[in-house]
């Protein structure tokens, strides 16, 4: 009995040792499996995080591109407005400059109208003195008239000499019609009052007679 009991204890001890080793190995397998699962889970989480970050970056890029396009449109709009403002400013400057220049040129227009009446009187006096044979007076008046006409030209005031030319309603005023008598019908045959221009602008129309054909 003692020997049988010893054998049974020995077998039991061996079985216990085998069970202990088996349990130990099984526990390590469980631990290894658990670690691998955790690593896979961490990897999956990292992939999800990377995907989320990529989506966020893509959204941010699209938002920046949209904002950049909007800013470009605003820049183009502001550039066009600036160009139009410059053009308007330049037009205003030119109009103002033209107004100032015209004011300088034609500011003496009324004064010139009065002066040409003086010139009319001098010319009439010259003609009368010449006809009456008053030579000395005729010479003096002719010199005075020449001097006055020189002053006129210096300041842009010029007498029109349309005799024999075509009638122009902007420069001439018809006061009579006269027989052509060798002159071209419709042309200016006589001048009863000289016309004047100030820097090319008519300030007094010439009073003219127009040649017309006569039917006998």
TrEMBL record:
GO molecular function: adenyl-nucleotide exchange factor activity; protein homodimerization activity; protein-folding chaperone binding; unfolded protein binding
One annotated GO biological process: protein import into mitochondrial matrix
Record has Coiled coil as a keyword: yes
Coiled coil: 61-95
This protein's record includes keyword Mitochondrion: no
Pfam family, one: GrpE
Cellular component annotations (GO), alphabetically ordered: PAM complex, Tim23 associated import motor
InterPro entries, sorted: GrpE, GrpE_CC, GrpE_head
Domain of life the protein comes from: Eukaryota
Keywords (A to Z) from UniProt: Chaperone, Coiled coil
Family stated for the protein in its record: Belongs to the GrpE family.
Name of the molecule in the record: GrpE protein homolog 2, mitochondrial
Naturally occurring in which organism (per UniProt): Xenopus laevis (African clawed frog)
Upper taxonomic lineage: Eukaryota, Metazoa, Chordata, Craniata, Vertebrata
